[in-house]
Amino acid sequence: MVANLLDGFTGTDLAFAVFAFAGTLFFLLRSGLMLLGGGGHHDLSSTHAVSHHQSDDVFQLLSVHSLTAFFMMFGWSGLACSRQYEMSALPSVVLALGVGGLSMLGIALLFRYARGMASPGEQYNAGMTVGQTGTVYQRIPAGGRGKVEVFIGGVRRELEALADGAEDVESFAKVQVVRVVDPATVGVKKLG
Question: Which of 8, 17, 93, 188 is most buried, judging by how many CB atoms fall within 10 Å of its CB?
Fold first, then answer.
């Protein structure tokens, strides 16, 4: 059956077919992993410490997503040019490189646009809470942990809290955040 499928394939056709099937398989695997919640954040740019903005854009062009798009579209368009339109090897390769390059650029621009849509509410760290007042959500026993809610930029944050005194802090008491213990825990002192 495979021999019948490959009947009349030239070396160029076979190369295009390998790129098309490998690129498509990798695309489907990555899409499946992203739907299941894994494998969505890896790209070649994350392995490079880049300080210059234009260099960062170039590395975003070389993400796993854009390279997958390049190989998939290079293979399928080259195979179409060669088999369907009966073009010779050179024009097929040139057109396939163009289509693959445009696909790569399109994916890079799409992800760049998506990064720009991130909500400022997601840009948070516990250090932003220091000096803020909040309300005890769950009683904080002396030497133990409780919970407080603090509003940062209009967004309610619920954090674990340690009392900076030797006494319990009851629920609904007003407190001030005085230090960061770890990214999810703050030290608070009772107000009034």
Answer: 188
